[in-house]
């Protein structure tokens, strides 16, 4: 279970304890986790299938949505099965390498989703402000390059964290009060100085997620200015409606994360299990609700879903 080196004991196996203080309720807590995961898998898989198989949906907006659905599946799969194993079988044992692998996919996918939401805001900006040049600007070639850039950015920024964690000696204890591994949550159990980890994690947050939020905000300021300059009320309503689903997804993605950050910073008297539950909401809610939001608010997707099921009948 442990290995010895020149600095003493370094744990190579850890135990995820789930939600501390609520161990007796783990079986009940697992129900919304399971329902959320199944909904996320089915909803996002259906969206990807419809978009890829229906040629009329091979437009930039829907291709970016396809990328978002793929990222949602990865994010939920990287976390929920591990949590369910803890809740159902008390199987929280995880090696250091698996823990680092899990947090790598969680953090990189989260940054990918943030980048995709930024690109989707840019897509709406082009569609509303430059409608006649929309197809000439957002070509399939550019969409492919954007997709590659998003994933290179996410994996490239998170990759150094592997080495920052590997250099540490974990000698405090090996019980992690969480349902999944995350960077600072693991690093704080090291006996080494983790200032490099803290500052690197902060720099990633500022240069990716915070920057994305600022650019999304600027995009929507420009979009709203363009919408309210339209002479036709019908055109304004149509433009606002096309942005509605994306705005809902943006709030759903960044909202819980902002709330969690505020509670961790100012809510020191809040019980630990509340922090863990909020962290899980950030992971569970967007993948589950994104396909529902787009299914309800996007007419083309509604039509294709209805057509697919009526065709089968």
Automatic annotation (TrEMBL):
InterPro entries assigned to the protein according to its UniProt record, in alphabetical order: GPCR_Rhodpsn, GPCR_Rhodpsn_7TM, Olfact_rcpt, OR51/52/56-like
This protein's UniProt keywords: Cell membrane, G-protein coupled receptor, Membrane, Olfaction, Receptor, Sensory transduction, Transducer, Transmembrane, Transmembrane helix
Membrane-spanning ranges: 27-50, 62-91, 103-122, 142-165, 198-231, 243-262, 274-294
CDD domains with a match to the protein in the record: 7tmA_OR52B-like
Domain of life, per lineage: Eukaryota
MF GO annotations: G protein-coupled receptor activity; olfactory receptor activity
Recorded topology in the membrane: Multi-pass membrane protein
Gene Ontology cellular component terms for the protein in this record: plasma membrane
Subcellular location: Cell membrane; Membrane
GO BP term, example: cognition
Stated role: Odorant receptor.
Family, per entry: Belongs to the G-protein coupled receptor 1 family.
Name this protein carries in UniProt: Olfactory receptor
Organism: Sciurus vulgaris
Taxonomic lineage from the root: Eukaryota, Metazoa, Chordata, Craniata, Vertebrata
């Amino acid at each position: 279970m442990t290995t010895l080196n020149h600095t003493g004991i370094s744990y190579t196996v850890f135990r995820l304890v789930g939600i501390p203080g609520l161990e007796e309720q783990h079986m009940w807590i697992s129900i919304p986790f399971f329902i959320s995961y199944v909904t996320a898998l089915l909803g996002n898989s259906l969206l990807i299938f419809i978009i890829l198989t229906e040629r009329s949906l091979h437009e930039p907006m829907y291709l970016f949505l396809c990328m978002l659905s793929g990222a949602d599946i990865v994010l939920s799969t990287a976390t929920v099965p591990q949590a369910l194993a803890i809740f159902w079988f008390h199987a929280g044992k995880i090696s250091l390498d698996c823990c680092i692998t899990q947090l790598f996919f969680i953090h990189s996918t989260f940054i990918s989703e943030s980048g995709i939401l930024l690109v989707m805001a840019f897509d709406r900006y082009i569609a509303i402000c430059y409608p006649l040049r929309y197809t000439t600007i957002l070509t399939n070639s550019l969409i492919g390059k954007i997709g590659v850039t998003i994933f290179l950015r996410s994996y490239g920024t998170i990759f150094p964290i592997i080495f920052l964690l590997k250099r540490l000696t974990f000698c405090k204890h090996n019980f992690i009060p969480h349902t999944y591994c995350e960077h600072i949550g693991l690093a704080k159990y090291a006996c080494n100085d983790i200032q490099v980890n803290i500052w690197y994690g902060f720099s990633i947050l500022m240069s990716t997620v915070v920057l994305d939020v600022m650019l999304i905000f600027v995009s929507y300021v420009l979009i709203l200015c363009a919408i309210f300059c339209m002479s036709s009320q019908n055109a304004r309503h149509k433009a606002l409606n096309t942005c509605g689903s994306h705005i809902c997804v943006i709030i759903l993605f960044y909202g819980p994360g902002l709330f969690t950050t505020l509670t961790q910073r100012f809510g020191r008297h809040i019980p630990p299990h509340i922090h863990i539950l909020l962290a899980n909401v950030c992971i569970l809610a967007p993948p589950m609700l994104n396909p529902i939001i787009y299914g309800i608010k996007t007419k083309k997707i509604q039509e294709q879903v209805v057509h697919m099921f009526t065709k089968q009948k």
